[in-house]
Amino acid sequence: MPLLSRLAVVLTLLIPSPLAAQQEEWIAAIRGTVDIEGGLMRLAAQREGLIAEVLVNEGDRVTAGQVLARIDASEAELQTRTAELEFEQARLQGEIASMRLRHAEDEVARLSSMAAADAIPRKDMDAANRALDLARAEADQARIAAALAENRLAVARLDIAAREVRAPVAGVILRRSARVGDATTTNTVTEMFLLAPDGARVLKGQLTEQFVGQVRPGQEASLMSERDGDIALRGRVLRIAPIFGTPGQGQANPGQTEANSVEIVISIDDEAARDLILGERLVARIRP
Prior knowledge:
Elements: H1 3-14, H2 18-23, E1 28-36, E2 41-44, E3 49-54, E4 61-62, E5 67-71, H3 74-116, H4 122-161, E6 164-166, E7 171-176, E8 183-184, E9 191-197, E10 201-208, E11 220-225, E12 232-244, E13 261-268, E14 281-286
Antiparallel strand pairs: 1-10, 1-14, 2-9, 3-5, 3-8, 4-7, 5-6, 7-9, 10-13, 11-12, 11-14, 12-13
């Protein structure tokens, strides 16, 4: 659409003719951009290292949990193998301790009947009981050592898993910054992928202070694309930020000459919302 035609569409929407106002009454008009409810997701690595593999490209659709990239895990794999051997060693030591415990229990049971008949010296029975107590302590120690080794193995395996960058939700890769051979760091968050989740499309814009108090959540809205005037959609006001300026960036400067505004989010109800381009500009007219 030529620039002059697009400007004409915008002016028509923002400053409608008396006839248009009679056909559809509205109390406020805003301009905003198409976004995703909850926003885009910037994915970064959880571990430092060199990127060994990148498995997706821009525009690819991914599923929740899909591996997008891998950080070199050579050292982590070696530590995991060491932890596996330590766990196996602790397990075998636990089996040996259990065998000694069973033997000590059998010996005490055997000598108990003989001691009851005064067939053996009392010191032999006392020695068997002390051996049983020692075997029990060694078995407990072996169980604790095996549990510690198992925990170390679990940590090592988690470290390998943390070197895989996965998609937390289904969506589309909008930007891929990761390249094989690049180094990642956890000192500063380095974006590897920009993901657009498969969430609902919304319109985010600024509601000027002259309309604050007149517009409330739940009011219906008519939306039209500045790019293509034939794209007409319906929506509803979802929420209005209770602060002038951009939320999270402090209050607007009281001395500024521009009119204050609050952020407003409007749902886009039509199925055609899926065909909208993120960042596309829309004009919304809000009904009373």
